[in-house]
Amino acid sequence: MSSRMRAKEHTQQGIAYVHQGRIDDAIREFRSALEICPDDPMPRFELTNLLREQRRWEELARELEEFRSVCSFPDDPGLLSDIAHAKEMLAEHRKKEDS
């Protein structure tokens, strides 16, 4: 089986886990897919959306930066905006924790 097919299986399993409410399992599957094919946009898309929904800002910022390092459009305004937003939300979250 090709690495793309293995990555696709992990992505599909991750999506199934999301529908079952098994968030940590879904994240693990998306990350497994990315270990196999780091330039595959689908598991990265699913993972970043899930992290955003879960308000896991630090992980989201890290994943978006990683995506930026492997994608063919690292200076895309939308991607840069997403990274900035994630970092802004992380800063706000940390500020609230410190209060």
How is this structure best described in words?
This protein has helices at residues 3-20, 23-36, 41-53, 57-70, 77-98. It is 82% helix and 0% strand. α1 (3-20) packs parallel to α3, α2 (23-36) packs antiparallel against α3 (41-53) and α3 (41-53) packs antiparallel against α4 (57-70). The chain has 99 residues and is an all-alpha fold. The protein has one domain (3-98): Alpha Horseshoe (Serine Threonine Protein Phosphatase 5, Tetratricopeptide repeat). The mean pLDDT is 90. It has five helices and no strands. The longest helix has 22 residues, at 77-98. The N and C termini lie far apart (52 Å).
Describe the structure in brief.
The protein has 99 residues and is mainly alpha-helical.
Taking the alpha carbons of the first and last residues, their distance comes to 52 Å
Return the average pLDDT rounded to an integer: 90
CATH architecture level-2 label: Alpha Horseshoe
Radius of gyration: 14 Å
The helix/strand series, from N terminus to C terminus, equals HHHHH
